[in-house]
# Entry
Amino acid sequence: MQHLGAVILAAGESRRMGRPKQLLPWGDSTLIDAVVGAALAAPVAEVVVVLGHAADRVEQAVFARDPRLSFVRNEQYRTGMLSSVRAGVAALSDRCEAFFLYLGDQPWASPAVAAQLARAYTPGAILVPTADGRRGHPVLFSLTYRAEIAELDDAVGLRQLLWRHPAAVRTVAVAEPAIHVDLDTPEDYDRYRRREE
# Structure
């Protein structure tokens, strides 16, 4: 049986939003709690939320309670997203074979998409969901690359891994255009929140 994990990036400063978007109301909860709930509903054995900016407040905004859930703080979050990926990957157990990478501003992340990727996973693969010909999240990364992720160039980011291992990258067509939905600006938030209500 696969032992899969999830890393949720929730360390950013939300500069375009103008306030910590992880804390924004979403349904009867918060934006970050919605993402955590989606990850916990995926076929995963462990979920790591990476905190940085407003770490205490973001952790308190996660109301989900589950023994699979843990938090890690990235003190280097200002250096970019890759530092948070590294922190999350380092916090995954040695039993973990692969991990889903979730963005902390994708409240409609679909457990069905994660399940589809898990079914398609083979050792060493990097699986990218696509809808309408466009790539989205979550991406499922083999932890074969754990050591390599720790050494990637901060200035380029995680996409280096896909460039280095093109034969490992496979796209998986899904029927969920929400894989493209993230909330970067107040306009994004207002538009999608209205759809949620």
User: Anything to note?
Assistant: The chain has one domain: 4-196.
